[in-house]
Amino acid sequence: MGVKEKILIVGAGLSGAVIGRELAQEGYKVEIIDSRSHIAGNCHTERDEATGVMVHIYGPHIFHTDDTEVWDYVNGFTTFMPYKNRVKTTSGGQVYSLPVNLHTINQFFGKTFRPDEARTFLEDQADKTITDPQTFEEQALRFVGNDLYEAFFKGYTQKQWGCSPTALPASILKRLPVRFNYDDNYFFHKYQGMPENGYTDMIERILDHPNITVTLDTVFNRDAAEDYAHVFYSGPLDGYFDYELGRLGYRTLDFERFTYDGDYQGCAVMNYGDVSVPYTRITEHKHFSPWEEHAGSVCYREFSRACEPQDIPYYPIRLVEEKAQLTEYVARAEQESGVTFVGRLGTYRYLDMDVTIREALDTARLYLARKAENAAMATFLHAPL
Ligand SMILES: Cc1cc2nc3c(=O)[nH]c(=O)nc-3n(C[C@H](O)[C@H](O)[C@H](O)COP(=O)(O)OP(=O)(O)OC[C@H]3O[C@@H](n4cnc5c(N)ncnc54)[C@H](O)[C@@H]3O)c2cc1C
Question: Domain containing 146: what range?
């Protein structure tokens, strides 16, 4: 198929790369720009020169999904190595297994409960006076009672969100956050793994198509859009409108990087539940590639705080205030033509990588279908609200 129209994609992360690849394969000429000096967005990985460890520069990323098409898609570009995410937590001077499971409960209460006994025990711990939980704290107390709440939920949540769990909605904790068996695999998904040579290598392969050009260190300018048949924008929604209605609230992360000669903590992720410890967790990156061997180690201490204008936005807050502002930005976006807002920043949602890829594939397909019908492309694939 010959080269058709020119498409501009803002952002060379997973969203931009997958949409770009799908359209390039259909004969579109795809130009991708990114303000950073590397591709892969927040999934970017880089080998540390001194130790050889594959470092997840913007924090660790574990691929997990139930979506067979997405799993086959990523496996078409790289080899995925087996990896199971198992998280530990340090709380009150002891190390426990997460998510809270039968091992955690037995260790914490000094018991040898079988599953049914633990379930009955926890029902007794639960605060039954709370019938209509409104806050995260009430929901947690209703599910697990005060002791487990204080040890495993309160401090961590407070550090992660920068506010008291009494100020967060109950909806954050939808289900009973406890397992009555010894399963400590963090994710329930059918497929889980790590790309053998990191995410940046995988995304480089997705972008490797003669119809795709990538230009780094380039910030999107709305005037440039006129030269293209369509723009797919994976930058921040509020940024597209120069923050005219104020900034949507995000949490950002600070990573305090340190190296260690040997094995620092014996696992990939160690959470810290106590409020007296200022960081939420320490991640040790060589354990995310368990098939590799390295004498040295690279670790990140992770601190969470409110995102300022100069920071990298990580987690959308989406509380009441942000939702009102988001409604206005969405209304503005819908008045635009020739642009589709995509990805975690373009739609102001937390999206795992598999969901990002699913949405990117569906976005490209919708564009092709609308083109075939000579119909206008949607501003959003899914309404962000
Ligand atoms: C701390 C953290 C941990 C995570 N861990 C996991 C995990 O374990 N498993 C999982 O499945 N998912 C995880 N995710 C989610 C994962 O990061 C996202 O799914 C993925 O990054 C979304 O890709 P994207 O392309 O939409 O966005 P991004 O990766 O953010 O890419 C957007 C790109 O657009 C560029 N850009 C922005 N504005 C402009 C502009 N104006 N001009 C030019 N370029 C611009 C940016 O530089 C960036 O490269 C995690 C996310 C965070 C924050």
Answer: 87-172
Q: Indicate if 214 and 328 belong to the same structural domain.
A: yes
Determine whether 318 is an active site residue: no
| Cα(77)–Cα(265) distance, integer angstroms | 32
Give tens-digit pLDDT for 252-294: 999 999 999 999 999 999 999 999 999 999 999 999 999 999 9
Is 350 in the active site?
Answer: yes
CA–centroid distance, residue 34 to ligand 1 (Å): 12
- Angle formed at CA 315 by CA 56 and CA 18, multiple of 5 degrees: 60
Tell me whether residue 146 is in a domain. yes
Give the span between the Cα atoms of 208 and 186, in whole angstroms. 33
Best CA proximity match to 357, nearest among 77, 33, 5, 30: 77
Do 159 and 210 lie in one domain? The reply is no
171 pLDDT exceeds 90? Answer: no
| pLDDT band per the 50, 70, 90 thresholds, residue 3 | low
Residues near ligand 1 (Cβ within 6 A): 10-16, 33-36, 41-43, 59, 61-63, 219-220, 234-236, 239, 253, 314-315, 343-345, 351-354, 356
Name the burial class of residue 364, with classes exposed (0-12), middle (13-18) and buried (19+) by CB atoms within 10 angstroms of its CB: buried
Residue 156 and residue 10 share a domain:
no
Domain membership flag for residue 155:
yes
Would you state the pLDDT for residue 319?
82
Distance (Å, whole) CA 147 – CA 109: 9
Of the candidates 123, 147, 244, 350, the residue annotated as catalytic is: 350
| pLDDT of the residue at 320 | 79
Name the residue at shortest CA distance from atom 8 of ligand 1: 61
Confidence check: pLDDT of 21 > 80: yes
Whether 15 and 57 share a structural domain: yes
Question: How many structural domains compose the chain?
Answer: 2
Mind listing the pLDDT tens digit for each residue in 120-135? Answer: 999 999 999 999 999 9
